[in-house]
Fold this sequence. Notes:
globular; 9 helices; 38% helix; Rossmann fold; nine-stranded mixed β-sheet
Amino acid sequence: MNYVQHAHGKWAYQKSGKGQEYFLVFHGFGQTYHDMLPFDQIRKPGQTFLFFDMFYHGHSQWTHSEKPLDRQIWKELIHKLQQQEGFQDFHLIGYSMGGKFALLTYELLPASVKSLTLLAPDGIKTGLWYSMSSYPNYLHVLFKRVVFKPQRFFGLVEGLNSAGLVEKSLVKFVKTQMETRSKRAQAYFIWKVFGNIQLQLGKIIRQSRSKSIPMTLFIGEFDKMVSAENLERFSSKIPHLRKIILPIGHGGLIEAAAEHLRTNG
């Protein structure tokens, strides 16, 4: 593993390939860089792919949970990475939570981004139970209780499911990501550290219109967490954005999108 060292943490990434054309690849909540490795099959000669572990995932470490990750720190991390690896321009690929950080990177450094590939990105409009990195600070006390006393929380989820107020796939996602105390603690610290970051979508749209770069949006046809309907208001405002809907749910989108790019370009 390689690391970007920062005063607030250690950002881990796996490097694949040798070349001057760089791709930064960000995974989703509860994953590690391993989950994004299907994209290594689209790597061509002369390209370098950097697969990251986001903070509180895999080998990456955040030093102080009381210090939130903000725009300035994220920008510093990207600059340190550029200096360390010796590149300026780069492509972005992000799935789910990683899609939010790909968009954030584009928001902060539009002149450096050569293309943007998003897979069911968080941070635009997602289901209530899914936006685990987007809740405001005043809810952190509630989430902390969930970590240590989850029974009432799971009872609430089951009740909403029985009443038909949430999709079964969302219930499954919540239970899978919160099934153990360590996973619940991970969710809590992600809420706490990432929760202040809200994308400036208007700025992103204006940037994309003023300087067109290739932008591809992959959506799962059966995705109940990040649906095509929820992304429509954003995607419809970027005329050159290529939207690809695949016959898959949220969980299978990484493999399906990578295969689509491998066979169709």
